[in-house]
Amino acid sequence: MIPILVVLGVIFWPGWLVWAVLMIILGYKHPPVVYPDIRLDRKRKLIGWVSLVIFILTFTPMPIQGL
């Protein structure tokens, strides 16, 4: 991921370089799951899917400029 961010930072937007540096400093490994043996119930899966749909509907690849 870090090389991809560097390439995006060089080609498109320098802000991606900041994210690449932050990933290098902070690391990118996810902490372990607290209860790996317990599966998600239907309610939590539904909340996850609804959150993903809201994210997709409201995502802006480039912030609105000039306002």
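(ticket continues) Second input and output from the same batch:
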Amino acid sequence: MLPASLLPLPSATFHILMAVASEDRHGYAIIQDVEQRTNGALRISAGTLYRSIQRMLEQGLLVETTERPAPELDDERRRYYRITEFGAAVAKAEASRLYKLVRMARASGFAPERA
């Protein structure tokens, strides 16, 4: 499957991929990261998160990992997710698509030169 075949990504999917890009995270940590990254503008509900994660696992964007960052401090019921190489390629393709879209919007006068 080619990364472009999954574009455009749903907003929640793109944000989840960004949340797990630098480290494995469990569901609640993903929700917190998205809220912090967007300054509260986007809040992903648990239902949306877990439906998205299930679809992303099926698409090969994420894998569930059994590794724990600090096992002695962790709740064993938590599931941790890691971005795959394919997931990173899809995220990069989506970022490129959005970048090109903003460039076109700027050229049409619909977006400022600098935000």
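Agent notes: The beta strands are 25-26, 62-65, 80-83. The chain has four helices and three strands. Closing as not reproducible unless the customer responds.
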